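Hi all, long-time lurker, first post. I run a small reading group and we've been trying to get comfortable going from sequence to structure in the token notation. Rather than ask abstract questions, I figured I'd post a concrete chain and ask someone more experienced to write out its structure so we can walk through it together at our next meeting. Sequence below, copied exactly:
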Amino acid sequence: MLVLLACIAPTVYADEVSVAVAANFTAPMRQIAAAFEKDTGHTVVAAFGATGKFYAQIRNGAPFQVLLSADQETPTRLVRERAAVAGSQFTYAIGKLVLWSAMPGLVDGAGAVLTQGGFSHIALADPKLAPYGAAAIEAMQSLGVLETLRAKAVTAENITHAHQFIRTLNAELGFVALSQVLKDGAVEGSAWLLPVHLYSPIRQDAVVLERGRGKPAVQALLHYLKSGKAQAIIQSFGYALS
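-- Answer (accepted) --
Happy to help. Here is the structure in token form:
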């Protein structure tokens, strides 16, 4: 009987966790979710998109239990508005902004291409919805090139769409998350990792939403995000942890 109970216990207690995930964190979250499901028996149901859109959906009753935001402000705001659980918020990753082109040799290691030209379009995520888009605007302001590049800017709904614009050469270059272009420790195409002093730190926070309050599977996922296994995956995609 004890052997039988041991065999069926994971099935009895397994549950689903509904997670809204910032688009930049798509690749690492897929790896983390697969490992989490294997290790715990719980299932992750993830949606990927712009943080600003998720905020609106959550406020309108979307059935998410956890938000993995691309910023700190959105989780803080949800806690303040009592749409998220106070005390559950923590930073799971610190993002890095990169100027990237799918074409080798186009983007130099100092970002001089931004002033030298030689391109028709530059892509970025919508700064009103996506923190990486806001960081791109801030960086261009810091570099003094924002006004000269406005006419060439192509605004995407989120960071995933910005990456698609560049990958398909609808824009020769643009601003994306390092995690999107880092593969096996190297960047395909050409890129410039922007110095962090050019934009405010992209601290990405997780928070339990009201629909996830008191759910064991939700707590298991948040605990797993802080584990050595998950943090190794996060760092492998170019994120910092602190």
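A couple of things your group might point at:
Residues 1-12 have pLDDT under 50 and may be disordered.
Residues 2-94+203-236 form a domain with the D-Maltodextrin-Binding Protein; domain 2 fold (CATH 3.40.190.10).
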